[in-house]
């Protein structure tokens, strides 16, 4: 690697972002972090891992924060007080770990508003992975052995939740192209082709 960098993946459910990250990890030899962040932040914070799973990509419920956007949970240090397992505080713990990962190693981070959390950091490549409805449904059915109706419902509910989560913690719209460096439509390309597009961009920027 020419220099340290971080790739963040925003993604629609079923679009294949994890598959792309897995392939890039093998080909470039860099780690990617998804739900294993829960275990890592649990070890670091002492908060049970189950709390992070339960609140996975779910917006908080701080009504005052919703009204006054200056009260951004990301910029505050995690609390060790009575609100230690509140959604906002769990987000702060995750944000702290994501910044540490980006500072200390070349890596990829899937979801969890990582693009926004690292917006003031250097050498961050922000990617959004999307797809047409049919390609996403087919991938979910194949990957998780789901009935079509279940796959459709899971995609709808997951993307709705991710959109709310991103909006709550960033004040921005999750699926707007202007938030990212690269937007990939995996209904029009294979996972291998998507990985090649990313590698081409990394070469152009001098990262690999």
Short descriptors:
208 residues; alpha/beta; Rossmann fold; five-stranded parallel beta sheet; 9 helices
Give a structural overview.
This protein has nine helices and five strands. With 208 residues, it is α/β, with parallel strands linked by helices. 35% of the residues are buried.
Draw up the topology in text.
Layout: E1 6-11, H1 17-28, E2 32-33, H2 36-45, H3 49-54, H4 63-67, H5 87-104, E3 107-110, H6 114-117, E4 124-130, H7 133-144, H8 148-170, E5 182-185, H9 191-204
Parallel strand pairs: 1-3, 1-4, 2-3, 4-5
Helix pairs in contact: 1-9, 2-5, 7-8
Quick rundown:
50% of the residues lie in helices and 11% in strands. The chain has 208 residues and is of the alpha/beta class.
Q: Tell me roughly what share of residues is in helical segments.
A: 40-55%
Counting copies of identical and different chains, the oligomeric state is single chain
- N-to-C series of helices and strands: EHEHHHHEHEHHEH
The count of helical stretches stands at 9
The largest β sheet comes out as:
5 strands, parallel
Task: Please give the number of β-strands.
Answer: 5
Mean pLDDT: 89
Low-confidence stretches: 63-71
The rounded distance between the terminal residues' Cα atoms is 5 Å
| Tally of discrete structural domains | 1
Give the helix/strand class: alpha/beta
Let me know the CATH homologous superfamily.
P-loop containing nucleotide triphosphate hydrolases
Main CATH class: Alpha Beta
Query: What is the overall silhouette?
Result: globular
Strand order of the largest sheet: 2-3-1-4-5
- What is the CATH architecture annotation? 3-Layer(aba) Sandwich
Rg over C-alpha atoms, rounded to the nearest angstrom: 17 Å
Indicate the proportion of strand residues: 5-15%
The fold-level CATH name is Rossmann fold
């Amino acid at each position: 690697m020419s220099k340290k960098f971080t790739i963040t993946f925003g993604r629609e459910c079923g679009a294949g972002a994890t598959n792309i990250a897995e392939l890039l990890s093998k080909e470039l030899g860099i780690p990617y972090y998804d739900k294993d962040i829960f275990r890592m932040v649990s070890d670091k914070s002492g908060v049970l891992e189950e709390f992070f799973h339960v609140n996975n990509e779910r917006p908080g419920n701080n009504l005052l924060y919703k009204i006054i956007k200056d009260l951004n949970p990301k910029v505050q240090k995690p609390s060790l007080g009575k609100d230690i397992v509140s959604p906002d505080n769990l987000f702060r713990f995750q944000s702290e770990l994501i910044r540490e990962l980006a500072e200390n190693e070349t890596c990829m981070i899937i979801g969890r508003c990582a693009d926004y959390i690292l917006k003031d950091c250097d050498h961050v490549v922000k990617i959004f992975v999307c797809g047409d409805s049919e390609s996403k449904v087919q991938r979910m059915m194949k990957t998780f052995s789901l009935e079509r109706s279940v796959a459709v419902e899971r995609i709808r509910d997951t993307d709705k939740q991710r959109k709310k989560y991103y909006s709550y913690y960033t004040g921005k719209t999750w699926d707007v192209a202007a938030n990212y460096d690269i937007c990939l439509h995996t209904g029009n390309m294979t996972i291998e082709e998507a990985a090649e597009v990313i590698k081409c961009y990394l070469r152009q920027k001098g990262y690999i």
